[in-house]
Specification:
- The complex is a heterodimer of chains A (about 240) and B (about 130).
- Chain A is of the alpha+beta class and about 240 residues long.
- Chain A has a domain of about 140 residues.
- Helix content of chain A is about 35%, strand content about 25%.
- In chain A, strands 1, 4, 5, 6, 9, 10 and 11 form a 7-stranded mixed sheet that branches. In chain A, strands 3-2-7-8 form a 4-stranded antiparallel sheet, with no helix packed on it.
- Chain A starts with a helix and ends with a strand.
- Chain B is of the alpha+beta class and about 130 residues long.
- Among the domains of chain B are: about 35 residues; about 40 residues, no CATH class.
- Helices cover about 45% and strands about 20% of the residues of chain B.
- In chain B, a hairpin with a 2-residue loop joins strand 1 and strand 2.
- Classes of the chains: A alpha+beta (about 240), B alpha+beta (about 130).
- At the A-B interface, helix 1, helix 3, strand 1, strand 4 and strand 5 of A face helix 1, helix 3, strand 1, strand 2 and strand 3 of B.
- Strand 10 of chain A pairs antiparallel with strand 3 of chain B, so a sheet runs across the interface.
Chain lengths: ~240, ~130
């Protein structure tokens, strides 16, 4: 009878152990090897996503600090009228167009909406850094931990995709406006300014020289989110 | 000791321990192997998604590296016909704060390859 009891106790012990088989499976060699490979993959993806998030954070930070300034060109591009300009080369004073802030036309009717970076307030603060909430990479991460990290990565990927679409929408509407400063900064010649001469900015239409700068602007009422008339990155003819 | 009672109790325990909690719960709960399979599928899909994101994200990385700001101020007093007008001029000299910091890009065909060539490079004496 005592033998029967011992046998039954052994059987009971085996049966109880069988219910924990799943828990024990994690430590079996094939499962452990696959989990280790998954851990390495997840860590690599997290690293890539974090670098991408840094780029997105930088973009979001400066994009939030931009404000549009309506600018128009005053004067005739063919120089028949406009701002008085003197080359001081013995020839008579001529005319040149120049750029000025447009406060008269209705919004969207200006020639260009230049983008001004606001350096006041929060725009001077450091860029937000992503991360910090991720689980610390662990060589002993469990399946549950990896599943959570993958779910988080999926959300991150969705956010990155949304950010890239937002950037594409914004950037594809921008134009590159060739601008040059005409006149001498030291006042030897240039736009007539009282009894002196000063430089000013104008659209550069010359065929033989590169412009000083390419300003980024929305041209002719183009705005992100709407159909843009100008091709992405198109300059001004 | 009442051995038959102990045996009966152990038999009951054996039966209870051997039986699964309920057939439905056992089906709902995937095995570790299944969970690793699912996880690997998710990782494969994520790898593809993140690879696809590389190029668009690099675009604004390039933009961020290449863009710069130009100080511009509005000056009144330029002669325009019989009157005077304000006009914009560069304001990059001196210590005063310009009215505007306009976003600009290098003059090459944007986005240029050259504009970010120094980005991320370490200083070298070579």
């Amino acid at each position: 009878m005592r033998r029967l009891a011992i046998t039954l106790v052994t059987i009971a012990g085996l049966a109880l152990g069988a219910t924990d088989a799943h828990a024990g499976e994690e430590s079996t060699a094939p499962a452990a090897a696959r989990l280790a490979a998954a851990r390495a993959d997840v860590a690599r993806l997290e690293q890539q996503a974090e670098l991408m998030q840094l780029s997105v954070a930088r973009y979001d930070a400066w994009q939030a600090c931009l404000k549009g300034v309506p600018v128009s060109e005053y004067g005739d591009a063919d120089r028949q009228f406009g701002f008085a300009y003197d080359e001081r080369d013995g020839a008579a004073t001529s005319f040149r167009p120049a750029l000025a802030v447009d406060r008269r036309r209705r919004p969207g009717r200006e020639d260009y909406l230049f983008l001004d970076f606001d350096r006041s307030g929060g725009c001077r603060s450091a860029t937000t850094k992503p991360g910090g909430t991720a689980d610390a990479a662990s060589a002993r991460a469990t399946i549950g931990n990896l599943e959570r990290r993958v779910s988080r990565l999926k959300r991150t990927a969705r956010r990155l995709l949304a950010a890239s679409e937002r950037f594409d929408d914004w950037e594809s509407c921008l134009s590159w406006v060739p601008v040059t400063e005409y006149g001498d900064p030291d006042g030897a010649f240039g736009y007539v300014f009282g009894n002196a001469f000063r430089p000013a900015l104008a659209i550069d239409r010359s065929d033989w020289d590169d412009p000083d700068y390419m300003f980024l602007a929305f041209v002719g009422g183009d705005r992100p989110g709407r159909e843009c008339q100008n091709e992405p990155g198109e300059g001004i003819d | 000791m009442n051995i038959p009672r102990i045996v009966a109790a152990l038999v009951c325990l054996t039966v209870l321990a051997g039986s699964s909690p309920s057939p439905a719960r056992a089906e709902d709960r995937p095995s570790l192997s299944d969970r690793i399979d699912d996880l690997q599928d998710e990782i494969d899909s994520l790898t593809e998604e993140i690879d696809d994101l590389r190029e668009p994200v690099e675009e604004f990385e390039l933009f961020d590296e290449c863009m710069f700001l130009i100080g511009v101020s509005e000056r009144p007093g330029y002669r325009y016909g019989a009157t005077t007008r304000k006009a914009l001029a560069l304001d990059i000299r001196g210590f005063g704060r310009p009215d505007f910091q306009f976003l600009a890009f290098p003059a090459e065909e944007p986005p240029s390859i050259e504009c970010n060539e120094d980005a991320g490079q370490e200083d070298s004496d070579d």
